[in-house]
Design goal:
The complex is a heterodimer of chains A (about 325) and B (about 300). Chain A has about 325 residues and is an all-alpha fold. Chain A contains 16 helices and no strands. The N terminus of chain A is likely disordered. Chain B has about 300 residues and is an all-alpha fold. Chain B has a domain of about 190 residues: Orthogonal Bundle (MetI-like fold), CATH 1.10.3720.10. Chain B is about 75% helix and about 0% strand. Chain B has 13 helices and 2 strands, in the order αββαααααααααααα. A two-stranded antiparallel sheet of chain B has the order 1-2. Chain B is flat and about 75 Å long. The model of chain B has no long low-confidence stretch (mean pLDDT about 85). At the A-B interface, α2, α4, α6, α7 and α8 of A face α1, α3, α4, α5 and α7 of B.
């Protein structure tokens, strides 16, 4: 870049000319091309990607309404895999039914435990300086990036050979899911604490508030959007979780939807009831996402930032 | 002096308060994150109960044995080693899928971050949507499409690209890599988008004003600035891919496409082999701990800079 700006004077004269691009040999080859024009190729590519990423799912949802046993050939519309078939529908088949209940139950338990645990941890670690705090914060972030299989193996062994009173099943699943997800609130709340700064707390302290009052009256209200976003993330992550629940379930009654789909799909011959389960998971996740988005917008109303910020926040970025 | 003593006592109290607040999380992490990893180590370095064929954890490091390690090593490099090729295959699949993810994901993330304009929210919703759809549902979608009588084969037959239906779901590496790309690309795109969106467009415009054309501006301004997002996005996809066992199980189910995750998963279900499974997962952790720590440091730095 330094080669193009020879002297400040020429640089100051240049901008209008170079902005339109007249007389530059590199652009002479593309005389009709506006250098600031819309990148149609990139846009086309992006749309192709979006079609590739979303159409298969749309078709899978469609097959959940198939009037027949095929997951590959459309045979007409029916609700039979959801409720109208008295034997094989999600509503009446006890195993399918139990899978839906188990997923919801695990999501609820995990969110209720992980969010308070993570928020308290974030507050404490962020304000309590020192080696212990720093190292446990490190462990927390490590639990965020460790491959789930390695963590799942560790959980499997600790429940089968050390904490043997915790049998594989709902309890083991919940304990593992909480550990796996507690980093969402811990990380998101800490990031928010950094942006909030210390001035509100100091003002509260100057006005005579003790630490509990500061937390309850100042920090918690300021942190509500972050806490809410992390609760949404924990809940939806647990709906979609597979590895931990696959390693730690004990079969009947503790098998959530993801594991049920995995173990019954038989190369695409498990029947459209599986697509119905998947569609139910999808609807649940989207419902959570919409609630999350609207809730986040409502909680951060009056703040700078936009719907885009809310979108990325409930997806765990930003 | 008196004042100073008072403030230090206050400081101590305050620190104690914050420590108490963090304590439940710390205890939880100790009991259910640190202790479990020590348990894996104790099993990996433990013995076998000859009578029942079950692993026995040895908690005292002084009594650790290398029996499981030797058994694992024989499987990796011995003459009858079956793990060596599986490890190589895992690396190949992961590398291929990660590169494809980047090649597909970068342009899309770049376009939305820089040229999304007024439709940014729409693009973002569409990009994020798969992130909210269960991994199993997304795999099931392709399992449906790739069946022998599925739409992919029908389309290829109608276009006369193939003469007879292809068994995509019976041990094809291509299908497994497709599954991995499809499964993990939303995470990559999301991280990349967040990183690319932070690049100040003024920097790119300055480059253009100074005479760079679009390609040059991309190469000399955007690309250097997106090195960090690319690295973190690659890590966020590569780390789980290495431990993946369900994608190839769903997309092929054949042993000729097994990855290291399948081996560990199978060994867990047979008590006799659990010790070796523990060794393998410790080995995997040791290999991955360096990129993991790098990721932690890199994301910490970004959060600090953003504040």
């Amino acid at each position: 870049m330094t080669t193009t700006t020879t002297t400040p004077a020429t640089a100051a004269e240049q901008p209008p000319a170079s902005a339109t691009g007249h007389g530059r040999p590199a652009r002479a080859r593309w005389p009709r091309r506006n250098p600031w024009g819309h990148p149609w190729f990139l846009e086309g590519f992006t749309w192709l990607y979006l079609i590739w990423s979303l159409v298969p799912i749309g078709l899978a949802v469609l097959f959940s309404f198939n009037h027949g046993k095929s997951q590959a050939v459309w045979q007409g519309f029916s609700w039979q895999w959801y409720f109208s078939d008295p034997v094989n529908s999600v509503l009446y088949n006890p195993a399918l039914h139990a899978a839906v209940v188990q997923t919801l139950r695990l999501s609820l338990y995990t969110t209720l435990i992980a969010v308070p645990l993570g928020v308290a941890f974030a507050l404490g670690i962020n304000r309590w300086y020192g080696v212990t705090a720093a190292s446990f914060n490190f462990v927390m972030i490590l639990s965020f990036v460790i491959p789930e299989l390695i963590f799942g193996v560790a959980m499997f062994f600790v429940f089968t050979s050390l904490y043997t009173s915790v049998h594989l099943g709902t309890l083991a699943e919940t304990l593992a899911l909480v550990t796996w997800n507690v980093s969402w609130p811990a990380i998101i709340v800490q990031a928010r604490l950094v942006t909030i700064g210390k001035q509100y707390e100091e003002a509260a302290a100057d006005l005579g508030a003790n630490q509990w009052q500061t937390i309850r009256r100042v920090l918690i209200p300021l942190l509500t959007p972050a806490i809410f976003a992390s609760a949404v993330l924990v809940f939806s992550t647990v709906i979609d979780d597979f590895v931990l629940v696959d390693l730690l379930n004990s079969g009947a009654g503790s098998t959530p939807m993801s594991v049920y789909i995995y173990s019954n799909q038989r190369g695409g011959n498990g029947g459209p009831a599986l697509n119905a389960l998947g569609t139910i998971m999808l609807v649940m996740s989207f419902a959570i996402a919409i609630i999350g988005y609207l809730g986040y917008r409502w909680l951060t109303r009056g703040e700078r930032g936009s719907g885009l910020g809310a979108l990325t926040s409930i997806a765990g970025e930003g | 002096m008196a004042v100073r003593a008072l403030t230090t006592r206050g400081d101590k109290q305050r620190r104690l308060f914050w420590a108490c607040l963090a304590a439940p999380g710390i205890i939880w992490l100790t009991l259910l994150f640190i202790v479990p990893f020590y348990t894996v180590l104790a099993i990996a370095a433990g013995r076998l109960n000859e009578l029942f064929g079950t692993p026995i954890a040895v908690w005292n490091p002084l009594h650790w044995s290398a029996a499981n390690l030797q058994a694992a090593w024989r499987e990796i490099s011995g003459s009858s080693a079956f793990l060596g090729p599986i490890i190589l295959r895992t690396l190949f699949y992961t590398a291929a899928a990660a590169i494809l993810c980047l090649v597909i994901g970068y342009p899309a993330a770049y376009f939305v971050a820089r040229f999304g304009g007024r439709r940014k929210a729409l693009f973002l919703v569409l990009l994020i949507a798969p992130f909210w759809i269960s991994y199993m549902m997304r795999m099931l979608a392709w399992v449906d499409l790739l069946q022998t009588n599925g739409y992919v084969n029908q389309a290829l037959l109608n276009l006369h690209l193939i003469g007879h239906p292809i068994g995509w779901l019976s041990g094809q590496s291509v299908t497994v890599i497709l599954g991995l790309v499809y499964g993990y690309i939303p995470y990559l795109i999301l991280v990349l988008y967040a990183g690319l969106d932070r690049i100040d467009p003024a920097l790119i415009e300055a480059g253009r004003d100074l005479g760079l054309n679009r390609a040059q501006a991309f190469r000399r301004v955007t690309l250097p600035l997106s090195r960090q997002p690319i690295m973190t996005a690659m890590l966020i996809t590569v780390l789980p891919m290495l431990g993946d066992y369900f994608t190839n199980q769903l997309m092929s189910g054949a042993t000729n496409t097994s990855m290291i995750g399948n081996v560990i998963n199978q060994q867990l279900s047979t008590p006799l082999f659990q010790g070796v499974g523990a060794v393998l997962s410790v080995m995997m952790l040791l290999v991955l701990i360096i990129p993991m720590i790098w990721y932690v440091i890199a994301t910490n730095r970004t959060t600090r800079d953003a504040a």
